[in-house]
Input
Amino acid sequence: MSLRILIVDDSPAMRAYVRRTLQMAGLPITSIYEAGNGEEGLAAVGREHSRENPLDVIFTDLNMPVMNGEEMVLKLKETEYDIPILVISTDATQSRVFRLRELGARGYISKPCPPEMIRWKVEQILGKQ
Amino acid sequence: MEKETTPAAMLETVRDVLNTMFFLDVEEERENACCAKDLNVKVNFAGESCGEMHLAMPRHIAEQLAANFLGSTPGETPSEKQIEEIVQELGNILCGAFLSRHDSTGLFNLSSPEILPPGSLAITGMKRYYVLEDGCIELILDWEKINGQL
Output
């Protein structure tokens, strides 16, 4: 199994944190793609995802300029793509978490999040596939 | 949240954030301390609560935060750009985590964190210093709750 992952976050620091965590997790990752907002995220999905060569997980922040994470998740839900989405956000209010789960996010990681949490969530998703 | 419980709630948040993602321990919290303000960050928030949070810290603390966050190896120094980005992210995480945990009644929106020029006028509000092994971080929180207790 080889993993292809997309990280969507307007914070370059946070993208680096998630990327480093994934690389050090011992997971069989072949590619990590990055996007700075929801619109770029959708473009990346369009470019990098296909039935033959799918993206395996999308990590997304919520509060981003141009297009926020919730809008991106909603737009992905309207497509035929069924890519597992993990939300990483500082906003862990119940209403927001519930809303994202309703839209189809597979998991919600609230910041601060230790590296082990990111690794565990990916393993959890992979285990279910 | 009652105003008098804000410092304890913020201390809990700062400890958790610094420990979990920056691998640093807060040794103590003070109301007064001497703290160089080489890097200054501001985050605005709005919603059920609104206000501002400012962070300030000496350069060597900012470098340490950045190195720990990135998992830099010894001898690997984060760039100036990385240091600023990570300090901004610290502001984002602290503000969001505090509001989520201690004011979970409603939604909130955070502004993009902003680096302030040195010598910027400080806001008034709850001010605390979080002492780490090699220095400290100054945090000022100025907030009001719409329809609430503050």
Observations:
- The mean pLDDT of chain B is 88.
- The longest strand of chain B covers residues 136-145.
